[in-house]
C-alpha cells in the first residue's frame, strides 16, 4: 500500500545536488515522512485507537517506517538521475477506523494530522530562517545552514500541499470522503482501483501547477525568494 507520493523533487532540481547534498535531501525527506506517519498514529490514539502503538509504530525511528525500495532505493535513483519529480513511499502507520470514538471527525483528524505536522515543521524552520536572517551579521552559521533549512521547509510544504489532493490514497481523499453523503461512496469505491493511475497522471502532467502555491508559502514563511 502506498502511503505517500513524494513530489518535493519537482523543486530540488533548482539546486545543484552533489553526493553530500543528496544524502541530506533523502534524510530530510525520510524524516519528514516519518513525522507525517507518526502524527497519524498519535491522532488515531487520541480518538481511542491504539493499533499503531501496539504495532510499535509510534516512534521517530525511521527504521520502523521505511520500505527499502520505496523510501530509499527509488528516491535515490531518481535524485541521482536528475528526475524532474520524486516518487516513493513509506509503510503506512496502521489504524482501525472502527475503534475511533468519533468515526467522522476521528477520520478527518487522523488524515489531517500528517498534513498539519508537515506544515508545522515548515513554519518552524521558516521562522528559524527569518530569525537568523535578521541577526546574520552577528551570527556565525555553519556552511550549508540555509541550504538544509530551506530544503526542510520545501520538503514539508510539498508533502503537506500534495497530500491535500483528494486522490486516493492521499490524505485529502479521506478528508473529502468524510464529508460526502453515503450515496457517493459506491461511485468512489468503483473508481478507487484506478486511483494510482490517476495519481501518476497527475504527477506527470499537473503537479507543476502546485509550484506557485509552494513558492508563495516558501517566501511567506522564510522571507527568501523561491
Summarize the structure in words.
This protein has one domain (9-222). 62% of the residues lie in helices and 0% in strands. It has 10 helices and no strands. By secondary structure, the chain is mainly α. Mean pLDDT is 84; it is low at 7-14. Helix 5 (103-134) packs antiparallel against helix 6 and helix 5 (103-134) crosses helix 10 (211-222).
Core attributes:
226 residues; mainly alpha; 62% helix; 0% strand; globular
The total count of strands amounts to: 0
User: What is the percent of helical residues?
Assistant: 55-70%
Largest sheet: none
* Poorly predicted tracts of residues: 7-14
Succession of helices and strands: HHHHHHHHHH
Tally of helical runs: 10
Query: Strand portion, in percent?
Result: under 5%
Q: Helix- and strand-based class?
A: mainly alpha
What Rg, in angstroms, do the CA atoms define?
18 Å
Give the rounded overall mean pLDDT.
84
* Number of individual domains: 1
How many angstroms does the end-to-end distance come to? 33 Å
Shape: globular
